[in-house]
């Protein structure tokens, strides 16, 4: 006698793939293949840039470096050219500091002209009275750089103030030594 075992039949389930899944797989495939070709192109470009860079290193100085070098040299020349100008500017700077200290509080200087080549200063100013003008003249006489002082014009204004012009001859060497 033979034994037979019967197994119950299973129902077969049909596996169906949805169209969205297939579309997604196709898009993914295109992205992978596209990325592959993109990476190949990027690698080639990078290799070309590396070749250009090594060639530039072999040649030495690049055009950018030459341009930069000429710009730096021009700035250096400009810096050297400005040194004499700054030295000439130092003379008026020292004088103005000294004049500020020697100006009477009631005297207002309206116009000032400095001719450093001749050593002449022309001042125009206004003061309250003759006494403050005389005190201003005494203050200026105390300055070591002053050689001579003249007042070519002294006038009484409509407001009752004193308007004056003073011409000062200065010793440029003393001012230069004060630097």
List keywords for this structure.
179 residues; alpha+beta; Gyrase A, domain 2; four-stranded antiparallel β-sheet; 4 strands
Question: How would you sum up this structure, described in words?
Answer:
The chain is α+β, with helices and mostly antiparallel strands. It has a domain at 82-177: Gyrase A, domain 2, CATH 3.30.1360. Helix content is 55%, strand content 20%. The protein contains 4 helices and 4 strands, in the order ααββαββα. The chain has helices at 19-59, 63-101, 130-141, 172-177; strands at residues 108-115, 120-127, 146-156, 162-170. Strands 1-2-4-3 form a 4-stranded antiparallel β-sheet, covered by helices on one side. Strand 3 (146-156) and strand 4 (162-170) form a beta hairpin. The protein starts with 18 loop residues before the first helix and ends with a helix. The relative contact order is 0.08. The model has no long low-confidence stretch (mean pLDDT 83).
Strand content: 15-25%
Class from secondary-structure proportions: alpha+beta
What is the CA-CA span between the terminal residues?
134 Å
Largest sheet: 4 strands, antiparallel
Q: Please give the count of helices.
A: 4
Contiguous low-pLDDT stretches (5 residues minimum) are none
Q: What's the CATH C level of the domain at 82-177? A: Alpha Beta
What coarse outline follows from CA principal-axis ratios?
elongated
- Strand arrangement, largest sheet? 1-2-4-3
- Helix-strand topology string: HHEEHEEH
The overall strand count is 4
- Could you state the CATH homologous superfamily of the domain at 82-177? General secretion pathway protein M, EpsM
| Oligomer designation | single chain
Radius of gyration, in Å, reads 46 Å
Proper CATH architecture of the domain at 82-177: 2-Layer Sandwich
- Helical fraction equals 40-55%
Mean of residue pLDDT? 83
| CATH domain topology of the domain at 82-177 | Gyrase A, domain 2
């Amino acid at each position: 006698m033979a034994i037979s075992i019967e197994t119950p039949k299973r129902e077969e389930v049909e596996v169906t793939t949805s169209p969205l899944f297939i579309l997604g797989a196709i898009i993914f495939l295109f992205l992978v293949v596209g990325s592959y070709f993109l990476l190949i192109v990027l690698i080639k470009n990078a290799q070309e840039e590396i070749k250009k860079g090594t060639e530039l290193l072999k040649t030495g100085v690049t055009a950018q470096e030459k341009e930069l070098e000429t710009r730096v040299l021009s700035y250096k020349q400009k810096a050297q050219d400005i040194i004499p100008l700054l030295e000439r500017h130092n003379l008026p700077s020292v004088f103005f500091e000294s004049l500020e200290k020697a100006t009477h509080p009631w005297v207002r200087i309206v116009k000032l002209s400095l001719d450093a080549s001749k050593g002449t200063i022309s001042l125009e100013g206004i003061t309250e009275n003759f006494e403050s003008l005389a005190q201003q003249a005494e203050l200026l006489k105390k300055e070591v750089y002053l050689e001579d002082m003249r007042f070519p014009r002294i006038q009484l204004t409509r407001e009752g103030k004193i308007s004056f012009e003073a011409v000062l001859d200065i010793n440029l060497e003393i001012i230069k030594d004060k630097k």
